[in-house]
Amino acid sequence: MAWTVFSIIGIIAFAISGAIVAMEEEYDIFGVYLLGIVTAFGGGAIRNLLIGVPVSALWEQEMMFQVALLVMTIIFLFPRHLINHWNRWGKFFDAIGLSAFAIQGALFAVQLGLPISAIVVAAVLTGSGGGIIRDVLAKRKPLILRNEVYAVWAVFIGLIIGFELATSDLALYILFVITTTLRVFSYIKKWQLPFRSLQQS
Description:
By secondary structure, this protein is mainly alpha-helical. The chain has 8 helices and no strands.
């Protein structure tokens, strides 16, 4: 049950994220649908490739594709003055997608009986893979490659689930809320990972 819930939450959040980014870049309606789809399903496709699951398994999620298309259509028809506030709450949707898909990816790896290293990788790739593709297609620097705290939260989820510290549905929902809150908080407070610049001042 939790796996399905997190799949739906992640797809809705990332479909919105991809559609908004496409409109920010002034893509046409085809670009909106394309960016929304790759954001919502790209992470799962990358994860499947690396853990040995056929990518074609994605096509079995017909209902999920319908949900994504419906959400993107609604966003495309949204009043412009509401979408212009995206910068205020857009990171929230991205945080929701990251947390939901990281949990979903980790659970998927656990179901396959994979080791904890694979569980963490599955969490990171499922949680951030779609966002990476979205940002590359939009000619933006992917969030995961910036010095802000982003993929660390997916690693955190992978470790919690991998070490079986959250096994019940309730524990997973609590983990989702905590991780989403931490991601939003880290963005607001501008937490950063250590980095070095080779640019001369």
